[in-house]
């Protein structure tokens, strides 16, 4: 699934950190890396001044993608470079669809200021709307980036989007010869202590166990080895996932952008947003086609 990788870049330290990681993946899978810089022409200041300012943005973008391509070529990696004008997030989405890329790789934040696109907000919008999986990397000192992957984690709530994430996680584990971890967290935050509530918890736990068992069977049928499944009860889905990542030396989290909602389900979407912003390892998000963003 890593034959074509799109890396939008603004030349920031965050983008550079993501690029190093992308090069490791591309080198292992003989992938082509598309290096894209978007000259943000949607800001009022740029629209008003026009001409010279846009030329400067494009010239700077050309230098950014040229430098990145040179580094990739030093490792024998094939690249495609492009500098485009427009709104960053929509331009990235259009490019990914036009080129049919396998994955979009982005840092969670980049340079800020009048002369730079705000890559953080761009990343959030791309995660929510992209048809391709999006690989996000926090360019911070507390983040551990490891490749090749040894352990891949797929949190699941049994939703359609979680199923898509499971299929992607299986593909990644297969391509990387990595172990696959499946986790379902029962959120007991809003539950009390009376007998009826305890029965509800038991029902939720049994349902989560069934979801994990089905996911495990799917992964094993795809010849993934090893596969492990866990169900935990907790007051924070986000925290439980992060705890699992730390305890099991997970290298990559793969999860859907949307999940089931309602009293008996946690909202995977909100969990996904928190993980993208705080995860100490890269996160690969998967969106079901046609899902509302």
Task: Provide a descriptive summary of the structure in words.
The protein has 293 residues and is an alpha/beta fold. It is built from nine helices and ten strands. A ten-stranded mixed sheet has the order 3-2-1-4-5-10-9-6-7-8, with helices on both faces. Helix 4 packs across helix 5. The two termini are 24 Å apart.
Question: Could you list some keywords that capture this structure?
Answer:
293 residues; alpha/beta; 10-stranded mixed sheet; 46% helix; 21% strand; elongated
Quick structural gist:
With 293 residues, this protein is α/β, with parallel strands linked by helices. It contains nine helices and ten strands.
SS summary, helix count? 9
Low-confidence segments, given as residue ranges, are: 44-48, 111-118, 261-267
Strand content: 15-25%
- Structural class computed from helices and strand pairing: alpha/beta
Order of helices and strands: EHEHHEHEHEEHEHEHEHE
Give helix % range. 40-55%
What is the number of beta strands?
Answer: 10
Radius of gyration from the alpha-carbon trace, in angstroms = 20 Å
Give the biggest beta sheet: 10 strands, mixed
Averaged pLDDT, please? 86
In terms of quaternary structure, what is this? single chain
Overall 3D geometry? Answer: elongated
Cα distance spanning the termini: 24 Å
